[in-house]
Structure formats: structure tokens, C-alpha cells
Amino acid sequence: MYALIDYKGNQILLEEGKKVRIPYQKDLKIGSTLNFDQVIFFDDGKKKHVGSPYLKSTNFQVKIDSHSKESKVVVFKKKRRKGYHKKNGHKQPFTLIHVNKLQPKKVTATKVKAAKVAAPKATASKAKTTKKATPKATTKKAAATKTTKK
User: pTM above 0.70?
Assistant: First the structure.
């Protein structure tokens, strides 16, 4: 079973029992749960569900494991024959989540059905009256006059 979700503009593949890296969120506490409701695709082993663009009334909960940083990426700048070189590094932070089970939690939407009254409408029985169109009054515009300097 696996699911494809949209989280902060990234498409993330969730598989049961796996740990997945997502973009870092400093407000998420370790041990808390995170709810993914923008599910693009879900395969439950029997049937594949495809959203357009998202699956309605389906969401997943995962547990926050830790916050960490990726391995260092070295950025080395150099200009030949000028004696210029600069070495920088960058470690991208991420949040590690653990997916226990992929069971879609259905969000039930309550629908209120209005009872229809079988009484005939009073406006439908009245005869329709038509108005005669009155022609618009036309006005003539004054011709523009030319002025010339002498």
C-alpha cells in the first residue's frame, strides 16, 4: 500500500512502515501527529484511487520522528589566475516522519436533504404578459467645426 500526497508544493510518496523526509517545519513537535489531506493517489492493494486533483474525504496521519539536516553540500567558487577562491557549505534541514499504516480516514460530510413540496406553483399558473418594445429616441450630434489660423 502506498499513497502520493502533496505537501507544501512537493509530491511525497508514503509507504507503510517506512520513514520519509519532508520539508522542515519548526512548529512540528517530535512525537506529534501530522495530518495529510491533499492525497493525489492512493493504492490500497485492491484498487487504485486517483484524485482530480485530490481525493475527496481521504486523509492520512503520520508521526513526527525527528528534525535533522541533510549531508553537507560543498559550494566552491573560483576564478582562475586571479587568486580568488571561496568555499561554502550548506546543510538543508528536514523533518523525518514515520508512516505506520495507510488507512484512509474518511471525512464524512453531512448532507441535509430538503423535502420537496408537491404543491403547484402559483406563478406558473398566471398568464405571461409581454411588453411591447418602445423605440429609442435618436439624437443627432452636431458636426465638428474646423478652425484654421490665418
Answer: no
Neighbouring-strand partners of residue 2: 15, 43
Closest among 53, 65, 72, 74 to 100, alpha carbons compared: 65
Report which of 12, 31, 14, 10 is spatially closest to residue 104, judged by C-alpha positions.
14
Q: What would the pLDDT profile of 69-82 be if each residue is shown by its tens digit?
A: 999 999 999 999 99
Domain ranges of the chain: 2-63+96-106
Cβ–Cβ < 8 Å for 63, 100: yes
Q: Answer whether 96's CB lies under 8 Å from 19's CB.
A: yes
Which residues lie below 8 Å from residue 51, measured CB to CB, with a gap of 6+?
39, 40, 41
**CB-count exposure of residue 3 (10 Å: 0-12, 13-18, 19+):** buried
Cα separations in angstroms, 39 against 7, 56, 99: 9, 8, 15
- Check pLDDT > 80 for residue 65: yes
Confidence label for 25 from pLDDT (cuts 50, 70 and 90): confident
